[in-house]
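Notes from hallway chat w/ T.B., transcribed later so I don't forget. T.B. wanted the structure written out for a chain they're using in a teaching module, and asked if we could keep both sequence and structure tokens in one place. Agreed to drop them here.
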Amino acid sequence: MKKQFGLIGLGNFGRRVLEEMLLTDVEILIIDKDEELIEQYKNRVEAAYVADALKEEAISKIVPATIDGVIIDLVDKIEVSILVTNYLKKHGVRHIVATAETDEHGEILELVGATQIVFPNKEAARRITPTLISSTLFNYFPIGSGLAMAEVEVPSKYHSKTVVEANLRREAEINVIAIRSHDGDHFGFFGPDYLFQPEDVLLIVGEQHSVNRFSGAPEQRAPQPDKDSTESRKAMITKVQAAASGNKGSLSGFSIRSKIRRFLGWGR
């Protein structure tokens, strides 16, 4: 049986995920208010609906509770993304991926049921910044828990050394996964006697500080938290938690909608 996935909101991120999913053997359901977008994809997916995601009854009718996962791309509609996430949680959807613009938005999404949070803008910035700073770093992929994968031109100090002689795991605290040789177009596996040459590119993985040091990128400084904004965020999260418990663990309907708007300063 094929896996089934839903996409609610076809923003830039949602459309990119959809295009990637269309290359795989899965069944896809899409929901968006934009009729033109739905028209564009309706013949390429199993089900497509022009619908208002704010209507809980529409979500419960359209999205099967047994679906393998739902991606919510409503990052520019914070209130709607929070409500839709909770609707799906109440409906019994087990895996809910939601996009968020800020840490506060992400925390609330987790609170109301999201199982995975994606920060498209933040993650794009984390990937591109090291490549701008380092002239030998071509691609950079943060992979969570302080780890990163990167494509790095081999530093000159290792030229004409074999993999064994360089011993990068010990010397640089990184692991080399594959190598694109100076005269090649693709990454490939290598033996212990491979001789590093100028313009060889290594696919490496390691802790972010080790990858940065190996590539010549400066160490990233830890951001200094603003005490007032941190306390404000904690207070806001506590209030939303209180709203949730006040609804017996269920954030639903216009009651929680108005509470979220009031707590986050969006008016009534």
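Follow-up for T.B.: The longest strand covers residues 147-153. Might be a good example for the class.
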